[in-house]
Amino acid sequence: MAILSLQNIKIAFGGPELIDGVTLNVEAGERVCLVGRNGAGKSTLVKIIGGEILPDVGEVIYSQGLRIATLPQEVPHDLSGPVFDVVSEGLGKIAGLISEYHLLSHRLSSDHHEGALSQLERLQHEIESEGGWNLEQRVETVLSMLKLDADVSVAELSGGQKRRVLLARALVNEPDLLLLDEPTNHLDIESIGWLEKLLSAYKGAILFITHDRKFLQSLATRIIELDRGKITDWPGDYTTYLKRKQALIDAEATHNALFDKRLAQEESWVRQGIKARRTRNEGRVSALKEMRKERGMRRELSGSAKMNLNEAERSGKLVLEAKGIGCTFDGRKLIDNFSTVIMRGDKIGIIGPNGSGKTTLLNILLGNMVQHEGSVRRGTKLEVAYFDQHRAELNDEKSVMENVADGEHVTVNNRKRHVIGYLQDFLFPPDRARMSVKVLSGGERNRLLLAKLFTRPSNVIVMDEPTNDLDIDTLELLEEMLMEYKGTVLLVSHDREFLNNIVTSTIVCEGGGRIGEYVGGYDDWLRQRLPEAVNQKVKVPVQKKPRQKKEVPRKLTFKEKREIEALPGMIESMEAEHDGLYKKLADPEFYKGDGSSVAEAKSKIGKLEKDIAEAYERWALLERILKM
Question: Which value, to the nearest 10 degrees, does the dihedral of the CA atoms of residues 108, 111, 114, 116 take?
Fold first, then answer.
C-alpha cells in the first residue's frame, strides 16, 4: 500500500525544469535510495516530499495520519541548546513542556524551593493531560540507543555527534517515513556500520540519498534515479542497477544517433527547394517540424568530470620513516609508540573513530606538528598535495576561478590551459566558474578543492575525507585516478568501498593510543582482526576447525538423472527470456506504453533471476552427487 504518492511534480529555479513531471509511489516498509548527479535535484525532491518546498506543478498525496521526519544534509547553523531539548523537538508541540520539565527537575535535584516545586507540579499536570509521559520515556530511550548525553550542549559536539542528535530528533516520533539526505556524512566507520544495522531493522519506510556504495548496497530494496528532471525506477540492489543503467544508456545513445541521422536526411531533403513545398509533401514537412521540436526538447546526458593529476618528478624510494611516535592531547593518549615505514608508490588508508587521532597522525608525518614524541625522517624530492576535509584552502569571498588560478591560466603536466576550460573538466560551466565560492553546494566545493589540488605538481597526495558530498560518478572517477597514480597516497576516509578499491595497506587508530597496521583495505582489515585482539593487543590464537562429517557416497536416482539432463536447457531458456526482458527495458519506446507493462517486466526479471540462481545451485548439487 502506497503511503506517499507524487503526481506529475515539476519545479524550476529560473532555468530548465529541475524536476520535470515526476510521478512516484513509496510503499510502507520500503527502503528506497534516490541517486543522481550533484545538482540533479535530489535534495529538492526530498524537500518537496517533506513539505519544505512547494512544487510549481503537481500534487503530493500522503496517506491519512502519515508521520514524516527528515535528516537534512547539512547541520543547521542555528542548532543549539541541550541535546535533550533538540531531540524533543521531534515530538512537536509537547516538546516544550517535556524540555522544561526535564530542565526544572534537574535544578531541583540540587536546589529545592517552593516556587519551583509548584511550577513542576503545573508542568506535570499539563504533560499528563497531553498524554506525554510515554513521550519523555521515548526521548530517553532514543538518546540511550544513540549513546548521547542528554545534558551536553549541542554546540560542544563534533560534526558526527551533531548528526546523531539530528537522527535522534528524526527517530523520536517513530515516523512512518524517514527522509535521510546523505546520512553517512561526517560519521566514522563504526557509526556508519551501527546506522546500517539500525535502519535495516527499522519498521517504517525510508527514502535516502547517499554516495556510500556499501551503505547503499546493504540497505536499499529499490533504487530510483533522478536524471535530467525524470525519475527511473530500478528494483533490486546497486549492482543490478549499474548493469541495467548501462544498458539503458547504450540504448538511448543508439536511439538518439538514429534519430539525428534521420533528422539530417530530412533537413537535406527540405533544402532541395520547391519540391518540398508541393501539396503531396506537406505531411513530410509537418513531420520534419515535429522532429525539430523533439530534438530541441532533448536534454543531453550530463558529462563526467575529467580529472588529471599534475605529477611531479619521482620522489626518493623512502617517503617517510616514523619511530616511536607519541602524542597526548588534553591528558588523553592519542598516539602511543607508533613506528612505520612508507615507501614510494604505497597507497595507505588511515581509519578509526572520530577523535581517535587520524588527522593528528597525518600532521606529525607531514611535519605540520612538531610537539610529539619520537622521530620522523622524510625522504628526498617530496612534493606533497594536501586535501583538507574542512576546505580551509577555499576563500569564500573569491570566485571559483580566482580560487584555482592567480591569473587566467593554469599549468597542468607542462601544458598551459585557460582556467575556464580547466574548470569545465570539473563540471563548472563558465557562468558557474565566475560565481562566488560561498554559493556552491557541498559537492561543488569538494570538486573545486580537487581542481585546485590537481594544479600542483605532486608525488605524494594526502587526502583527509575527500569523498564527502561527491556524487557516485565523480567518486568513481577519483578512485580510478588514484589507483593509476604513480606516486604515494595517504588517505583518511570512512568510505569502505573507496578504501577497498584504492589502498594496499591500512593504518588503524584502535583507541587508547594503539595503532595497528594491516595488509589490504577495509574488508581485509575486518578479516585479519578479532575484537579481542583489537581491544587487548593480544596474540590471536590459531583456531582449530571442527571435524567435518564425511559425506556418505550415494548415486543419483532415476528422477535426478532426468533432472540433471534437463537443467542446462531449462537454464538456457530462462536466461534467454531474462535477456529479452532486459532489451525491452533498455528501449525508451517501451516506457511510452502502459505503465503496468513496465512493472510486470521488472517483476518477471526479479523472479527469473531467483529461479536461475536456484537452478544453478541445484545443478551444482546434483553434479557433486554424480562425482561421488
Answer: -40
**Could you give the count of Cα atoms lying within 13 Å of 585 in the half-sphere of its Cβ?**
25
Instruction: Determine which helix (DSSP H) or strand (DSSP E) holds 409, and give its type and residue range.
Output: strand 409-412
Helix axes 159-171, 133-145, angle to 10 degrees: 140
Angle between helix 558-586 and 238-270 (nearest 10): 40
pLDDT interval class at 84 (50, 70, 90): confident
Contact 32, 206 (CB under 8 A): yes
State CA 570 to chain mean position distance. 39
Distance CA 49, CA 199 (A): 20
Angle at 216 between CA 212 and CA 217, to 5 degrees: 120
Cα–Cα distances in Å, from 480 out to 413, 453, 485? 18, 17, 9
CATH architecture of 558-627: Orthogonal Bundle (1.10)
pLDDT at 345 over 80: yes
For the 318-536 domain, the top CATH level (class) is: alpha beta
The yes-or-no verdict on residue 188 having pLDDT over 50 is: yes
3-state DSSP helix/strand/coil % of the chain, to nearest 5: 45, 20, 35
- Distance, in Å, from the CA atom of 40 to the CA atom of 383, rounded to the nearest integer, reads 37
For 343, list phi and psi in degrees, rounded to 5.
Answer: -105, 160
Per-residue model confidence as pLDDT tens digits over 483-517: 888 899 999 998 999 999 999 999 999 888 899 99
Output the CA–CA distances (angstroms, integers) from residue 397 to 93, 421, 434, in the order listed.
Answer: 40, 22, 12
Position 505 scores a pLDDT of 92
CB within 8 Å of 157: residues ≥ 6 apart = 83, 165
Q: What CATH number is given for 1-67+175-301 in this structure?
A: 3.40.50.300
Report whether pLDDT(282) > 70.
no
Quick one: pLDDT band at residue 324, thresholds 50, 70, 90? very high
Cell numbers found for residue 81: 541548546
CATH 3.40.50.300-classified regions of the chain: 1-67+175-301, 318-536
DSSP letters along 273-342, please? -GGGGSGGGHHHHHHHHHHHHHHHH--PPPPPP-----B-S---SEEEEEEEEEEEETTEEEEEEEEEEE
d(CA 118, CA 190) in angstroms, rounded, equals 45
CA distance 424 to 433: 8
CB contact at 8 A, 310 and 455 = yes
Q: Is 515 in contact with 507 (CB distance < 8 Å)? A: yes
Query: Alpha-carbon distance 612 to 121, whole Å?
Result: 67
**Per-residue pLDDT band at 538 (split at 50, 70, 90):** very low
35-49, 122-136, 180-194, 526-540: which range is least confident on average?
526-540
**Residues whose CB is less than 8 angstroms from the CB of residue 243 and which lie 6 or more positions away in sequence, other chains included:** none
Distance CA 49, CA 556 (A): 58
pLDDT digits (tens, 9 = 90+) for 45-82: 999 999 999 999 999 999 998 989 998 877 888 888 88
Q: Is the pTM of this model over 0.85?
A: no
Residue with cell 564425511: 550
* Rg, Å, the chain Cα set: 30
